[in-house]
Amino acid sequence: MLSLITATAITSAGRMQFAMYSKVIVPLDGSELSEQALPYAQLVARSLSAPIELVQAFDILSPGLLGPRHQRAVEQLQRGAQERALASLDPVRQRLEAAGHAVGVATQRGAAADTIVAQASADPTALVVMCTHGRGGISRWVMGSVTDKVLHTMPNPMLIVRATVTGPAAPEASLRSVVVPLDGSALSELALPHAVSVAAALSARITVLRVTPTPGYYRQQLTAATLEMGAIPNFDPASPEELTAEDAESAAMYLADVSNRMAIDHAHGVVAEHVAHDNIAQSIIEQANVQPSLVVMTTHGRSGVGRMVMGSITDRVIRYSNTPVLVIR
To answer: Is residue 45 part of a domain?
Structure first.
């Protein structure tokens, strides 16, 4: 199995390269909410024949708080905390192994986010799958803040599942579509190899999505520009309708080119969707909600009229969507 994540989306021959993952890392905190990431981790791991590694952080009082005379007590506390972490992971490991997965377990003392980043960064080809919420308390994470810190610190690709309902993880997950939002930049297209790999493994259709502004957006911008530029002789800007028509034509050409490149290597279908919408994140979420979908997108792109600021858009999709999001830095 390939173990290198491609750095470019297209080879010199015009073919799409695949992104493969050496393993699937699942950080857990002992809560049922954090385990809601497991069905998606299993789905990806099974589809790509990758092992799963369960990771749990644990912490104890700082030795400095107890003083040097209590080093032995500190060691006992650490052993106890590690044993509890291992005991917490063991039932999950057994369930996954019973389902046919190769499973490893890792525990480490330290802050949760730092532990996850250190564990994953040691293998840049690993995929991290985790939830956005958990529960607080001693040796527990506030998963929203931990996920956010990991997302903005770690170089690895990261599949984020929003846990919205308290309760055990679903026995299995299914994804029939992979949605890839693009803004026309090379940075946003770094998501394409990952989308092709996952969609091929899942036998899922790929939708490449381009969102451009509505006439209302252009009308507001032109009104503001007219106030500033109206005194200039022969100032005659295009109409909002002309601008949106240009966007539609440009998007159609761009998406057709991307679709053709991807169709060479993806036999399950590539669909191009252009949407005029002023709320880009909402448009992505609505497209992903049409059927069980995975959104694959980068954290950065380029800004400007008709472009997506991919970092902030990705954050909004993660925050407000119930759809799992695979984030490529």
So the answer is: yes
Alpha carbon distance 310, 280 (integer Å) = 10
DSSP symbol at 37: G
Residue 167 lies in a domain: no
Q: Are 162 and 321 in contact (CB under 8 A)?
A: yes
Q: How far apart are CA 26 and CA 35, in angstroms?
A: 9
Give the torsion sign (CA, 184, 190, 193, 198).
negative
Q: C-alpha angle with apex 176: 276 to 181, nearest 5 degrees?
A: 30
Q: What is the pTM of this model?
A: 0.82
Q: What residues have CB less than 8 Å from 256, skipping those under 6 apart?
A: 272
Same structural domain, 261 and 296: yes
The structural domain count of the chain equals: 2
pLDDT digits (tens, 9 = 90+) for 24-69: 999 998 888 889 999 999 999 998 899 999 999 987 655 555 555 5
